[in-house]
């Protein structure tokens, strides 16, 4: 299923989106800036992108964010939906290099994964999101850049810590030849 | 879950429309609301939204929890706009009418109030459309009608899977959370930041790994039933587009175009009563 777009990718897109939506409600608020919080769901987005590639990442980002916002908050903030896809595509682009399912997600790939995610987050939250906020919603520039900067910090933290741990543990388990799994 | 909006089967004019129609309306409506800052059109949209909400027969209890959450975020956002940019309104409307000097560099102006009023009513233009879309659209029917207008069925199917599995995964999340809390892991807002990140991870680990297993199970089941072997697929819940659907779509497009013309008629997207 490595090449092309198979059944597994279709299902991963659907169920990944569902998981992302459910975790919308799990947030660790940052005190200072309103409407931004540490979002564990970002680690899920990074996880699925790194395993299933850019298309799955983009769809989970777009659909997951829009649906999650709609279901839990009743309104969709479109200018923050698209940056989510940027992250999914950027991380997913390197999915084959990470070789997570083959058990190859070790030191070298962890470093690369984190460089990719920091660059992707910078483009998404310091570039795309505030720009769209200003263009689409005419929000004050300094407010949206402050929010963007905090989202950037929060997300590299979440993906860097939680995302890296999830991927490396999963890589260890799925790369093994036996069916034994570590206990939680 | 009380704080979640989901589909409810009913028989109203809006429930009878095809899912595709409602999606087109929803997206165009959101775009219209995002692009225009014309107060007159925003008020028209609120009135229309209110009427459609009434017709859809949505019960207030279904949406009240989410509604209160939106109000909470909205108030924070409005206050925040004022503190970050107390004169955004003056810049936009090119005039300044002081009402009240507050403190330091902060003066309340009429223009700022009017700008924030616009941001405020913008929330109310979008809210009914989101509620109606989620409450009246059957997920399977939406997937079927998306495929009907040419979206590849793999994509439609993954949308359907997403909508289908949200409640299941939600259940599982609560089970795992309760189990971990029974073991004495604190999930509420007490505790330090690092502890809370760690405790969140303790829930996400089992949830994610059981989700990966679920993906295997579901995709194997679909493969056994020959999913993806043929170019076409038939749908149990497909509804053909009818006259009412065509009318609704035509109206959405027309409304979008008219709003854009009225909004940008005077050169920018703001309606300026201060000239």
Describe this structure in words.
The complex is a heterodimer of chains A (184) and B (275). Chain A is mainly α and 184 residues long. Chain A has one domain: Arp2/3 complex 21 kDa subunit ARPC3, CATH 1.10.1760.20. Helix content of chain A is 71%, strand content 2%. A two-stranded antiparallel ribbon of chain A has the order 1-2. In chain A, helix 1 packs antiparallel against helix 2 (41-52) and helix 2 crosses helix 7. The two termini of chain A are 28 Å apart. The model of chain A has no long low-confidence stretch (mean pLDDT 83). In chain B, strands 1-2 form a two-stranded antiparallel sheet. The mean pLDDT of chain B is 84. Helices cover 69% and strands 4% of the residues of chain B. The N and C termini of chain B lie far apart (50 Å). In chain B, 31% of the residues are buried. The interface between A and B is large, with 57 and 74 residues.
Any descriptors?
heterodimer; A: 184 residues; mainly alpha; Arp2/3 complex 21 kDa subunit ARPC3; two-stranded antiparallel ribbon; 7 helices; 71% helix; B: 275 residues; 2 domains; two-stranded antiparallel sheet; 2 strands; 4% strand
